[in-house]
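Extended Data, panel c. Modelled sequence:
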Amino acid sequence: MKKKLIALFLALAMVLSLAACGSSSSTSDSDSSTDTDSDTTTVEATDIKIGVSIWSSTDVLGSLSADIIEKAADALGVEVVFVDQGHVSEQVTASVETLCAAGCDAIVICNSADSEMTSAINTCDEYGTYLVQFYRIISEEDSPEVYETAVNSSYYVGAVHEDEYTNGYTLMTLLLENGDRNICLEGWTVGDATFQQRWAGYQAALDDWNEANPDDQATMTDPVYANTSSEEGAQVTTSFINTYPDMDALIVAGGGGDPLVGSIGAIENLGLTGTIDVVSTDFLEDLGDQLESGGMFAESGGHFCDPLYAFIMAYQAVTGDLTVTAGEFGYEIEFPYVYVSSAEDYANYETYFVDDDPYTTEEILELATYDFDALNEAATSLSIEDVMERHGS
């Protein structure tokens, strides 16, 4: 009885929170039919509800992620509920409680730190709710106890993410080969698992460069964190410029896009556009213009299909088409990044990923029928060229 009362309370709290955080739901149409034997009316409606725990459904990357999930939900006839949690640990774990209490059959989550996943997995185990990560995966090396929790779970399905170490290594290498030597690093949340991997990549590329070029050394600052707001991004960047007069490059590690918008704006306001080379991960809506003007030097991204594949994995777990076994870690899809360093590079990406969806409704329905190996192959093959070929361009 106590658990039922808690569940009711959380469900009511979720309804109130959805309006406050801009969350939404999408459901398929339902048909009513009459049972002539009992003279009662039954409703045939979607049987599956999937929750989405996301840092933001409204910033640049978050809105793309939400849009493609909603498209998949509409195609599959699934009800979807969003809860924005801002990458604040307490809100991340509370969002899972809220979505479970609301009766979700599965949840896809973009958490912040590995440590949050212990609570998330235990909650989903308690409610019998499947759980899939997107843009994230638990590190076996850095978080062995959390990893073991996932292994022992009957409801942790797996994760869809990128090779963040290589991503970081590649972006730092682009700066160094361009001649940048005094590089400032802007993070978004202390302890974020994805940021830690990117940071390791930045540092490894820097170390390799300095070892190979003893007479041409480069430096990188410790990270300063801007969370997920454009205002804080602008503040961090302005502080960097005032503190390091020889600064010639800025890495904005991520944060959904808003910190990058603030950082670019601060550089522009100080008349330094094109003087400070900026690289980042998470494509901007005006990336083509920024690359042309010098506001951006290079960017990695194009990976907003992570949540699509996580959503399909969650759907397949609920329908029984994807088997989840306690004692195994789960399924892993590692997405390739797209790198652009010119307006021309971005033009093709914009045409086939932004102006049009990389997957049609029919293709999403087909993906949902794939076994995991075929699903993984489809994900890891995603590229501009892949979309052009599938769409007959």
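The longest helix spans residues 2-21. This feature is highlighted in the accompanying rendering.
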